[in-house]
Specification:
The protein is of the alpha/beta class. The protein has a single domain, classed as Rossmann fold. It has a seven-stranded parallel sheet with strand order 3-2-1-4-5-6-7, with helices on both faces. α1 packs across α8, α3 runs parallel beside α4 and α4 runs parallel beside α6.
């Protein structure tokens, strides 16, 4: 972590799922203050915060917002600034998935997919950038997916949204690099989380067989990648896509 400010403020969106909670734990254990965003799972967010607080360390706070509603996001940031402080590190992890034929995807489905996965990331970035630019320092990590790189059959809307996150990352990195802000992307492969619970045991075994390292990814694998991109070892890295996928996509 940056030595100029060991106790940095980190916001992790979509922090109650497997990957999100692992990212929260990693930053907290490394001495950061962490703001936990939740959309619907307030109880899970509060339990995570309580569990971390029992171990001492930095500050951990819980903030709710509906990421399909721009005004809800705006209100969340007002609360964050008042109760928590300005954000040094933003991890745009919030997202939803889907599975089905494109012909079954309604326009409302499409807009909701982009609202949560792309629009919310854009709105969060707009909220944190003024402070980051003023202090000439900031880290933004956007969480995409391997399907944002390669595309996935029967996940067209999800793939399109995650590809948009990659484009956002690359363009924004060029725009705010002169202001000392690093912007990168993590594109996980198949990770053993609740999002993949719809897959049968046979499907999961096939995915393991298709992964050169011979296992599914763990949420901690993604958390380590995110943390690396926010540390001093990655200070000259921006506009890049780091994909922890076990060799599933090369």
């Amino acid at each position: 972590m940056n030595q100029r400010n060991l106790r940095q403020n980190v916001l992790v969106t979509g922090a109650t799922g497997g990957i999100g909670s692992a990212i929260v734990r990693k930053f907290y254990e490394e001495g950061c203050n962490v703001a936990i965003h939740y959309a619907h799972s307030k109880d899970r967010a509060e339990l995570l915060a309580e569990t971390l607080s029992e171990n001492g360390g930095g500050t951990v706070r819980v903030f709710g917002a509906d990421f399909t509603d721009p005004y809800s996001i705006q209100d969340m940031f007002a609360e964050i600034r008042e109760d928590f402080g300005d954000v040094d590190i933003l991890v745009n992890n919030a997202g939803i998935g889907s599975f089905g034929l494109i012909t079954d995807v309604t326009y409302e489905d499409w807009r909701t997919m982009f609202a949560v996965n792309v629009d919310a990331a854009f709105l969060c970035i707009r909220e944190v950038l003024p402070y980051m630019i003023r202090q000439n320092y900031g880290k933004i990590v956007n969480v995409s997916s391997i399907w944002g790189i390669t595309g996935a059959s029967c996940e067209v809307d999800y793939s399109a949204a995650k590809a948009a996150i990659i484009g956002l990352t690359k363009a924004l990195a060029k725009e705010v690099g002169p202001s000392g802000v690093n912007v990168n992307c993590v594109a996980p492969g198949v990770i053993d989380t609740e999002m993949n619970a719809r897959l049968s045991p046979e499907d999961m075994l096939d995915l393991v067989d298709d992964t050169p390292l011979g296992r599914l990814g763990l949420p901690q694998d993604v958390a380590e990648a995110v943390f690396f991109l926010c540390g001093e070892g990655a200070s000259f890295i921006t506009g890049q896509v780091l994909s922890p996928n076990g060799g599933f996509v090369i």
